[in-house]
Amino acid sequence: MRSIGALYRKRWLRHVLWAAILLLAAVSVLPEFLPGIWWIDNFSHFPPQYLATALILAVLSLGIPKFRVVAILILTLTAIWNVRALYPFYSGEAQRSHTKGDSFRLASINLLNGNRDFERVRSYIQDVDPDVLVLLEYTPYWHEEMEVLSRAYPYGERHPQPGSFGIALLSRFPLEAQLERLTPDGEVSLTGVFQYRGESVSIIATHPQPPMDADRFDRRNRQLQALGRRIRSMDGPLIVAGDLNTSSFSPHFKEFVGGKLMDTRQGFGIQLSWPSFAQPLMTTLDQCLISAELKAEDRVTGPGIGSDHLPIWVDISLRPADSALGE
Fold it and tell me: Which of 9, 162, 212, 226 is the most buried (most CB within 10 A)?
């Protein structure tokens, strides 16, 4: 005869398992329906983790004597919901077979304002050898340390400032760039135009507020909305790059991208980039988005450089005119 203590422990474990199943379903689905609540939206950033958790809970649920089918059904639907979010990044036209010289390379690096691993960052830039470079959390310290790049990147604009929102946009191509604040309480962006193979390519480098509370959540969203309006009014090849402080999975990101831009992750995998110090919790804050006139030929998340973000680089080419029109 089983002891009362053993029965109690088994019942308690079942309750914990059911709570985990229902909580997982809630955090997976609620951001889609309640995106205006800042802390709920922050749950939208982790579909890979939710999918892995659903699979683990499904195995554990085999030990539930009652309502096992219901538990498995809830977890199956939860898994499908999260696969739906991940699938676009593993489908598409990605091909890492382009010929050197057919594309230009853009790199985006969130330096982390307190990072002092200057040499590792410089070595990464030298190894990747980008043609266009976006630097975020660009402080006066980083401005001094990056002066050595001036010869390799003679064009662009640098806006160092203390804290987390200094920014630089550097280029080997002749580039006209200017600072712009898209909303009164937003952070500055850099907008510019460079010439590539006879085409004018517009670029916007940006770094909105992190949504750590309701106020900063609203400020981030207002900046993304203003940027979205600006993008929809622009014609021709366009790139938006930087730390958008929202993942590819958030409803706010999807609204911002709309039908105008494509996430360069598509076809290359999700390429998690933050937080680099807690890999099981990583998501996709570092973005490079392109318009239909452009094509991502390759996309890679780089190694650790002392920042809480991993750097990214993307090889980008011009689509033939008839191909872009057909998108």
Answer: 226
Chain segment 247-292, per-residue pLDDT in tens? 999 999 999 998 889 999 999 999 999 999 999 999 999 999 999 9
- Boundaries of every domain in the chain: 4-89, 98-325
Q: Global pTM?
A: 0.91
Give 29's contacts (C-beta < 8 A, 6+ positions apart). Answer: 78, 81
Q: DSSP state, 274? A: B
The answer to which of 41-50, 85-94, 156-165 has the lowest mean pLDDT is: 85-94
pLDDT tens per residue across span 186-220: 999 999 999 999 999 999 999 999 999 999 999 99
Return the closest-CA partner of residue 304 out of 49, 112, 146.
112
Helix orientation angle between 68-86 and 47-61, rounded to the nearest 10 degrees: 160
CATH number assigned to the domain covering 98-325: 3.60.10.10
Helix (H) or strand (E) segment spanning residue 7: helix 4-33
List the alpha helices (DSSP H) in 34-167: 38-41, 47-61, 68-86, 118-128, 140-145
